[in-house]
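Handover notes (outgoing to incoming on-call)

Open items:
1. Gliding motility-associated lipoprotein GldH: sequence verified, structure written out, both below. Nothing else pending on this one.
2. Nothing else urgent.
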Amino acid sequence: MQNKALILILAMAGFLMMAACDRSVVYNHYKHVDNEGWERNDTMHFYVPPIKQAGTYHQQLMLRTNNQLPFLGISVIVEQDIYPVGRKLRKRINCKLVEQNGHVIGSGISCYQYTFDVDSVQLNEGDSLHMYVMHYMKQENMQGISDVGILISQ
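Gliding motility-associated lipoprotein GldH structure tokens:
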């Protein structure tokens, strides 16, 4: 009986993994934030190489935090230049990190990882991106953010 339950659990886990992997990742990169904190004028730059296939691409912002973050969430600006057409896009992302009751939303134990949707964008074959990420908080130096990343999938 235990073997049947184990087989059922493994089959369900395999199905969930296949369903979660239905997008192909074309870019996945993190930039480390200085140990002194993320200064307002410290812009993270991400250079996405030319796209091999035209289509709709899903963009996500990724954050890693530690226990030094003094806020329940942060606001982040994601700007991007699409080349060679020269199109510019800008979006403000409000990143909720902790519930009002103190429950951390991200995954992890003492360091937490988060993923936030940015946008879906139509790209042509050969288009490349230069993406800029900066925090949009009144506080000049944001303690508690350890890494900032971009994930693009089709």
